Amino acid sequence: MTWRRGILSLAVLAPALAWHGNALAHGATCRRAGGAVAVECLYDSGSPMAFCDVAVYGAASGDSVILAGATDAAGRFAFVPGSGGPWRVVVDDGMGHSARAEITGADPAAAAGADGGGRGGRTGRVCGGVAGVGVIFGIFGIYALARSRRPE
Amino acid sequence: MHISDGVAPIPVAVAGALAALPGIAAGLKVLKEERIPAAALVSSVLFLSTLLVRLPLGPSSVHPLLGGLAGLLLGWSAMPAFLISLFLQALLFQFGGITTLGINTFVMGMPAVGVYLLFNGRIRRERDTRKAFCLGAAAGIAAYLASFVLWAGALLLCGRQLAAIVAIAFLPNLVLAAAEGIFTGFIVSFLARVYPAIFGAPAFEAEGEGL
């Protein structure tokens, strides 16, 4: 009689165990979504802003973050806009460097061109460097002129 | 070692600006006419060194500060020199930021002034180029590490976690501090031999007069 009770118990428990197994995956599915906007965040040196915190702000959300995440190893982050935007994406490496991008959902080019780092590549940097040195000497020159005209 | 726009809350940015102001005023007060070309030159070097020399280390990149060299050559006037170079870096290349200009000036400029107060007198009196090298190297390393400590402190005030800052940034910056120390040592030993007046009297007279 004992083995009959064992079989009966298993028969009763089996549906319950099977139901529990189904519950682990209940209602959870993943599929590829279209319409995502991806940003790529790079330091001015060209290296990716990898694994940095990302916050997405909407036009109506003000300072409230509507989506948070992190970039991948290549400095990329993607999200699917719920409307046309604009969306403000702020990437922060936690070390004092941040990049910003203004994105509209219908304009992927806006995302591709968005970064908060240096601008203009190597040529732009050289031109900016030369201009900056000129401005520095100009500022100190004006300061020298002002000091020389100051009455003793 | 710049802190970007938007990273610092407004109270921290204002506090940084207020902390930097006295040093900038003191630097302008002691900046005599004959030292203005040197200040312009050093400010240009500070501007370009950050711009052109970037070493990819870890997830980010580090760049020389040259605070030790600026402090030894300019004294208190290193503060306005840093201010102008940082302003143009923010304006032209978005390094750092306009709202964080005060913090960045304080973080990079005050260690330069500290190094000037600690090392400049000894370097002026030093005739041995090896000892001048050692003093210059010590000044370069001290200024860099002090800037790192101030920068980490500023980020803590901005709500960052100390463990994350140290984990990511400490080792690369330690390497660069050593490199900058060696570079500063070579420059100082060379200048002490060929043009010792560059570490010269005007800054000391100005210190007594201005502060």
In the CATH scheme, what's the topology name of chain A? Immunoglobulin-like
Instruction: Name the CATH homologous superfamily of chain A.
Output: Carboxypeptidase-like, regulatory domain
Total tally of structural domains of chain B? 1
Under CATH at level 1, the class of chain B stands as Mainly Alpha
The largest beta-sheet of chain A arranges its strands as: 3-2-5-6
The number of helices of chain A is 3
Task: Bin the strand percentage of chain B.
Answer: under 5%
Tell me how many strands of chain A there are. 6
Radius of gyration of chain B: 16 Å
| Radius of gyration over C-alpha positions of chain A, nearest whole angstrom | 29 Å
* Second CATH tier, the architecture of chain A: Sandwich
| Topology order of chain A in helix (H) and strand (E) letters | HEEEEEEHH
- Tell me how many strands of chain B there are: 2
Kindly, what is the distance between the CA atoms of the first and last residues of chain A, rounded to a whole number of angstroms?
118 Å
Q: And the CATH topology of chain B?
A: Arp2/3 complex 21 kDa subunit ARPC3
Top CATH class of chain A: Mainly Beta
Summarize the structure.
The complex is a heterodimer of chains A (152) and B (211). Chain A is of the alpha+beta class and 152 residues long.
Structural write-up:
The complex is a heterodimer of chains A (152) and B (211). Chain A has 152 residues and is of the alpha+beta class. Chain A has one domain: Sandwich (Immunoglobulin-like). Chain A has three helices and six strands; from the N terminus they run αββββββαα. In chain A, the strands form two sheets. Chain A has a four-stranded antiparallel sheet. In chain A, strands 1-4 form a two-stranded antiparallel ribbon. In chain A, a hairpin with a 5-residue loop joins strand 5 and strand 6. The longest helix of chain A is centred in the C-terminal third of the chain and has 29 residues, at 121-149. The N and C termini of chain A lie far apart (118 Å). The model of chain A is unreliable at 109-119 (pLDDT under 50). Chain B has a single domain, classed as Arp2/3 complex 21 kDa subunit ARPC3 (Orthogonal Bundle), CATH 1.10.1760. Chain B has eight helices and two strands. A two-stranded antiparallel ribbon of chain B has the order 1-2. In chain B, a hairpin with a 2-residue loop joins strand 1 and strand 2 (60-62). Chain B is globular, with a radius of gyration of 16 Å. The chains are: A alpha+beta (152), B mainly alpha (211). The interface between A and B is large, with 36 and 42 residues.
